């Protein structure tokens, strides 16, 4: 029989450990003893939900947040999230930067719609959520209309090819204002050569590109998440300090993948 969450939990009326159909497959919720609800999409841990918006459980999301904190951002920044999921990162940034505005897009509109029911996402106009292809979402933006662009979209365990090549990065370059920032989550595999086209396209579009991740993952010794950070001016000293003080071993690599 499906287990139910406690009445004080996020999405308390949603059965745990039970597949819920969505357009792209199935989503499942599990609870941890410390109050974290993990969201699984097609068998892969996609995100977490917790009461506190300031706390990020996934390490790559903390890398996202560190890159954004180190960036010279405008007070009323506009961010586009490609790969909305349950909007964990958008919720976090809306809390951290109350004057910011966010657009979250996902090819599967079902999951963001469920997320609206499950927990306290900011309302429009601070957070607008829509169903849209990740390439189209960036390609159709007006020139220099974004301050921040986040890519966190996957098909299974890898970034869809249209979002990891020259075309996507050139559209990103055009859509992001001068001095803007792009952060991209990469599920790194031991064969680092598979990620070279993605990183090379980022470097062709932006002056400064670096990668943040666990040293073993950056070296291709094991699987994990790597965050690409791209801009025309990155505070590398701030990110090195972040890496040195991170709770888990963290490296900053300016030539990844090698």
UniProtKB/TrEMBL annotation:
It comes from the Bacteria. It comes from Demequina activiva. Gene3D superfamilies: Vaccinia Virus protein VP39. InterPro entries: SAM-dependent_MTases_sf. This is Spermidine synthase.
